[in-house]
Design a protein that fits this description.
Largest sheet: 7 strands, mixed
CATH architecture of the largest domain: 3-Layer(aba) Sandwich
Mean pLDDT: 95
Structural class: alpha/beta
CATH topology of the largest domain: Aspartate Aminotransferase, domain 2
Number of domains: 2
Strand content: 5-15%
CATH class of the largest domain: Alpha Beta
Shape: globular
Bound molecules: pyridoxal-5'-phosphate
Number of helices: 13
Length: about 400
């Protein structure tokens, strides 16, 4: 049996997304004027309307991208460059130490080439970002604040609503990376009051390689790429009809069952946590209050466990989880997010999603409670696996 507990890296595609992709694979070029082109364009526009309905914004504010990375880059660079053009000065940009590299590295790159002055706000130890600290960093020349809705590693949820309201009073735009949030949090652009928001379809049951940038009407954005001028010039390139349709179908399905998934996953991540934090040297990281953490994420810090042995043992025992930052190159390097939070130890992130079953959770509990004490005692993966073999329903049992 295998427990796939790495939904924060990629969730399996939903049936609705597969069907939408299959239906639209034969689409013509959606910018062509012939009937086949118009049919294809209708699919894209319907997808845009569905995404807008799911997010609580206008279809004009939805731009399909190649994923979360492009959506973040478009918002961060696009808004800063537009402010630079408008003011002829160097705009100020505020972000946080727990952002995904799609935001943080984009911001640092802008600062390094003199396109922006950058302030990186330090997070709390639990991965949350204090609204007051962000507001303290804002200056008259601040063009954009970028604070993620929820963190990919710790699952820490930020108070985007309060931040957006305070920034609106100061006339400063807010971008939020909602890539990890949207599967379980009620993302609502109108209620949240954000100016830009990024999504990635493969985090909510859509295909890899497609995402959404929500850009509020009137927000000046300089495009990242130039070409055919599609999507009102904001994102040139032939529309990806099938991926856009699949992204919209997945988001609609995810939103429809979001409350039920959230309740289910809260119960399961707590059950997993309850089983493993009873073990010596295991602590749960991230926020403690349920409303401050994603239902889908359980982040653990393991004392005295070798990360390579952990990764190998879990893999062999049929538990797919992340023992480092998921979205990087896969190398077991220290996580900048954990460093920013002042956390140490061997990290283990278990992330659940729409397709997770109770059996997968039970299997993972069986494996973890067997191997973690063995690994902590210095056992090699082969020896730690022998402990797993005694767990019914697992490898070799
Ligand atoms: C918070 C966050 N932002 C952005 C991304 C990048 O999204 P994509 O993989 O679609 O480029 C990821 C994960 O990959 C993420 O977790």
């Amino acid at each position: 049996m295998t427990s796939y507990l790495d939904h924060a890296a990629s969730s399996p595609p939903r049936p609705e997304a597969r069907a939408a992709l299959a239906r639209a694979l034969d689409a013509a070029n959606a910018s062509a004027t012939h009937l086949a082109g118009q049919d294809a364009r209708a699919v894209v526009e319907e997808a845009r309307e569905d995404v807008a309905a799911a997010l609580g914004c206008s279809p004009h504010e939805v731009v399909f991208t190649s994923g979360g990375t492009e959506a973040d880059n478009l918002a961060v660079k696009g808004v800063v460059w537009a402010a630079r053009e408008r003011t002829r000065g160097v705009p100020h940009l505020v972000t946080t130490g727990v952002e995904h590299p799609a935001v943080l590295d984009a911001a640092r790159w802008l600062a390094a080439r003199g396109d922006a002055e950058l302030t990186v706000v330090a997070p709390r130890r639990d991965g949350r970002v204090e609204v007051e600290r962000v507001l303290d960093a804002v200056r008259p020349e601040t063009a954009l604040v970028s604070v993620m809705a929820a963190n990919n590693e710790l699952g820490a949820v930020n108070d985007v609503v309060t931040l957006a309201a305070a920034l609106r009073e100061r006339g400063v735009a807010l971008h939020t990376d909602a890539v990890q949030a949207v599967a379980t949090l009620d993302v609502d652009v109108a209620r949240w009051g954000v100016d830009a928001l990024a999504l990635s379809a493969h985090k909510f049951g859509g295909p890899q390689g497609v995402g959404v940038a929500m850009l509020r009407r009137g927000l000046g954005v300089v495009p990242l790429s130039h070409g055919g001028g599609q999507d009102r010039g904001v994102r040139s390139g032939t529309f990806s009809v099938g991926l856009d349709a699949a992204c919209a179908a997945a988001l609609t399905a995810a939103v429809a069952e979001r409350a039920a998934v959230r309740d289910r996953l809260h119960g399961w991540t707590d059950r997993l946590a309850g089983a493993v934090v009873a073990l010596p040297g295991v602590t749960r990281s991230g926020p403690t209050a349920p409303e401050h953490r994603l239902a889908s994420h359980l982040h653990l810090l393991l004392e005295g466990v070798d990360p390579t042995a952990l990764a190998l043992t879990l893999d062999l025992a049929g538990v797919a989880a992340s023992s480092g930052a998921a979205c990087g190159a896969g190398a077991a390097t220290a996580s900048p997010v954990l460093e920013a939070c002042g956390l140490g130890g061997t990290p283990l992130r278990l992330s659940l999603g729409w397709s997770t079953t109770a059996a997968e959770v039970d299997h993972a509990i069986g494996v973890l409670t067997a191997v973690l004490p063995a690994l902590r005692a210095g056992a090699a993966p082969a020896d730690a696996l022998r402990a797993v073999r005694t767990v019914p329903g697992t490898v070799g049992a």
